[in-house]
Amino acid sequence: MLLGFLAFLAVFGLLVTVHELGHLIFAKRAGIMCPEFAIGMGPKIFSFKHNDTLYTIRLLPVGGYVRMASQDMEINPLNAGMRIQVKLNENEEITHVLLDDKHNFTQVEEVEIDSSDIQREMYITAHRLHDNSFVKYHIAEEAYFVENANLERIAPADMRFEGKSPWQKFQALFAGPLFNFLLAFVLFTIVFFLTGKNVDEPVVGSLSEGLPAEESGLIVDDRINSINGRSIETWTDMTEVIQDEGAVPLELEVERAHSGEVETLTMTPELITEELAGEQVDRLVIGIGAKFERGVFEPILWGAQETVEMSTLIFTLVVELFISIFEGEFSFDMLNGPVGIAVVTNEMAQQGFIVLMRFTAMLSVNLGIMNLLPIPALDGGRILFVLYEAIFRRPVNRRVEINIQVFGVLFVLMIMILVTWNDIQNFFFS
């Protein structure tokens, strides 16, 4: 159980870190200030700051985020009547807003706040205490709130998300899913370098001791041409035929590796039971493994092909999932939340590092595709707003966008709660 938990944390951490790193890198390339990069949700358990970004690890392993500066995300700690100190530059612009006395700044002015705007116009109006005059200060391009000796930069208007072009916004949003696809490509490529790629031809690559294939006299490199008279062209054909025929004697027409002669071998598949995603699955086997090929540069091509094929497969399944909703056939059993993923990750970890790596690559593709769905609060939903802005040359009304985003967040949270509860019932109480 400990192995499974550690494997889940490692897989979760890798997927979320890579996804959010994509957002962070492209947001900063676009000149968008990112006050926080978080892995996990809830209370902070570890943090450090670098280049105006606070990097945090949070307690609950249910996601992560990059907080990009925007006028709606800027929290103004200044209220009318507050007494603070300000540090000014030579242009009489505020460079530091000192919220307490735990600092070492000198030559500061003490003021009593009248009004302030750090979202749009970037100013503070106040009564200066040493001469009781009313002043209006503009906030410098590089300015900070200072509290408990910590500096938090005030995001200037030109470093906020809404101040960027649609193309820059699109890059910052699309980069997260893109990095998930790139991670899957890297992991698949590493797997192919380590293990090679299974050949889809019906050629025996390995034999399991004590199972029907070995006992019948089948040897490595033998080619299976037909089973019970049904032609076999690929490895997939062979596995499907074995399952279709059932636990009955099979006549295999085999082209022998050592002589090229065609012989007929008879064997009866054995029924084995495997645990998959928390369920007991019965499968007929004869005890052979596929042949593998290796290469120096080929694994890179195979990794790309596997990523595309996995993306196509998962996208197709997602489309079928949405169709099932409209057809009234949808069930939460079709989905897995964090609990379900943790259980399956535990099973994959027990099967070995290579299996776990392939599973992680598959999850990475899945995360990339799911985040591109046009659902508010997901990357895909936010990309729709950017596309609207690019087409109509104006952003969506802020109030409308915020209301849609809030609805999207509530919808995603509700689905997560329902899926998690369904996972708990299926895996622990069924």
TrEMBL record:
Record GO terms (molecular function): metal ion binding; metalloendopeptidase activity
Keyword Ion transport annotated: no
Entry's localization field: Cell membrane; Membrane
Gene Ontology biological-process annotations: proteolysis
Domain annotation PDZ: ranges: 184-258
UniProt family annotation: Belongs to the peptidase M50B family.
Name the UniProt record assigns to this protein: Zinc metalloprotease
Phylogenetic lineage: Bacteria, Bacillati, Bacillota, Bacilli, Bacillales
